[in-house]
């Protein structure tokens, strides 16, 4: 499992952007993790799935709500990563009104989740291999803090915990 001090694994996530210019949808677009994190501070949180109850009611809204606080703490971008396809993440972004506050990034084949060692097997619940629920502060591609939830919990990966670490 990835730990504090490690470099994020080489991976490509996908991002669906709603519009470019005159209302033309674009995407999905590849996001090279190494290139996208270089020289930046990223508040990254991952979760089992888009439109799931805890993720939609608590996890994403907390990060959207605290966007300005994260910026004031020196965070360049907030990323939400989930094992879903880019179109689902785009629809969820609309539903959650993330706008330019949270980048909704798809890990469709769970490659990033597998590479970090932070997977969650929900096959028994009909969801297949997913990402565990966690948050991390990433500085220039390296893990500065890591908060991994116990199964079924939502106690340490919330926006408030990561924000306190960003202010550190």
TrEMBL record:
Alphabetically ordered keywords of this record: Antioxidant, Oxidoreductase, Peroxidase, Redox-active center
GO terms of biological process kind: cell redox homeostasis; cellular response to oxidative stress; hydrogen peroxide catabolic process
InterPro entries the record matches: PRX5-like, Redoxin, Thioredoxin-like_sf, Thioredoxin_domain
Family named by the database record: Belongs to the peroxiredoxin family. Prx5 subfamily.
Function summary: Thiol-specific peroxidase that catalyzes the reduction of hydrogen peroxide and organic hydroperoxides to water and alcohols, respectively. Plays a role in cell protection against oxidative stress by detoxifying peroxides.
PROSITE patterns registered for this protein in UniProt: THIOREDOXIN_2
Catalytic residue list: 55
Domain Thioredoxin: 2-168
CC annotations in GO: cytoplasm
Pfam families from the UniProt entry: Redoxin (PF08534)
Keyword Ubl conjugation: no
Name the record gives this protein: Glutathione-dependent peroxiredoxin
Keyword Cell membrane among UniProt keywords: no
EC main group: oxidoreductase
Record-listed E.C. numbers: 1.11.1.27
Substrates-to-products reaction catalysed: a hydroperoxide + 2 glutathione = an alcohol + glutathione disulfide + H2O
Molecular function per GO: thioredoxin peroxidase activity
């Amino acid at each position: 499992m990835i730990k504090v001090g490690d470099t994020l694994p080489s991976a490509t996530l996908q991002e669906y952007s709603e519009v470019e210019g005159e209302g033309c949808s674009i995407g999905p677009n590849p996001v090279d993790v190494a290139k996208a994190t270089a020289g930046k501070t990223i508040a990254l949180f991952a979760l089992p799935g888009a439109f799931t109850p805890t993720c939609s009611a608590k996890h994403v809204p907390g990060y959207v709500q605290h966007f300005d606080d994260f910026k004031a703490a020196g965070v360049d971008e907030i990323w939400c990563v989930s094992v879903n396809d880019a179109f689902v993440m785009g629809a969820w972004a609309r539903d959650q009104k993330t706008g330019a506050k949270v980048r909704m990034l798809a890990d469709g084949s769970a490659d990033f989740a597998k590479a970090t060692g932070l997977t969650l097997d929900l096959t028994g619940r009909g969801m297949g291999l997913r990402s565990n629920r966690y948050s991390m502060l990433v500085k220039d591609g390296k893990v500065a803090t890591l908060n991994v939830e116990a199964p079924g919990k939502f106690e340490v990966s919330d926006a408030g915990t990561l924000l306190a670490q960003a202010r550190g």
